[in-house]
Amino acid sequence: MEGVDTSARSDKDVFMEVLEKTDRTFSQDLWQGFMKTYTKHLDAFKTSDVWRENVDACSFIDKLSKTGHKLSMITGELCIGAQYKLEKLGVWKHFPTGGFGEDGLKRFDIADTAFEKAKALYGQTYDEIYVIGDTCLDIKTARHLGAKVISITTGSNTRQELKALEPDYIIDTFSEIEGLFI
């Protein structure tokens, strides 16, 4: 994994890069083997504290879910991994749809799928879309979707790196933007 940037990428894309670094060729058999191991590790993590709330994210999501805003997730993580983590944190129930690692190899494909799923589920178009993320790729993804960007400084990119991409908002905690939504 040394030198492999996993930030905001799909799990499968990362897996393929690791294979390439070890001179192995991707195959469905290798992927299925990875999935079995991955699922075993997820089960083990259910009882650990490896997944912790990111600043005040859980309370923000809980409050936001009580408004009329429609929530959707964009993550490179496989749906099963996202579900494990967010169930442990108690917020999975607030994301009835989303784009996940199995929906595309690259982030923009995943975001496009998430947007299409949201439109299909909620049955409407949107005047305003916000993407909240903690990486530079999240900012680029939001711009790809034509969305406003809220960058939180808790991820792998520094405040300066995030700021250089000119997000609409840059925050350290979610309480800073509650007034926008709640």
Q: What can be said about this structure in brief?
A:
By secondary structure, the chain is mainly alpha-helical.
Based on the model shown, name its key terms:
182 residues, mainly alpha, Rossmann fold, two-stranded parallel sheet, 8 helices
The quaternary state of the protein chains shown equals single chain
Give the overall shape.
Answer: globular
CATH class category label of the domain at 57-181:
Alpha Beta
Biggest sheet: strands, sense, closure? 3 strands, parallel
How many helix segments?
8
Strand order of the largest sheet: 3-4-5
CATH-defined architecture of the domain at 57-181: 3-Layer(aba) Sandwich
> Level of helix content?
40-55%
Any low-confidence stretches, pLDDT <50, length ≥5? none
Describe the overall structure.
The chain has a domain at 57-181: Rossmann fold, CATH 3.40.50. It has eight helices and five strands; from the N terminus they run αααβαβαβαβαβα. The chain has helices at residues 11-21, 28-45, 57-65, 79-89, 107-122, 136-145, 159-164, 178-181; strands at residues 73-74, 98-99, 130-133, 148-152, 169-171. Strand 3 (130-133), helix 6 and strand 4 (148-152) form a beta-alpha-beta unit. The radius of gyration is 17 Å and the shape is globular.
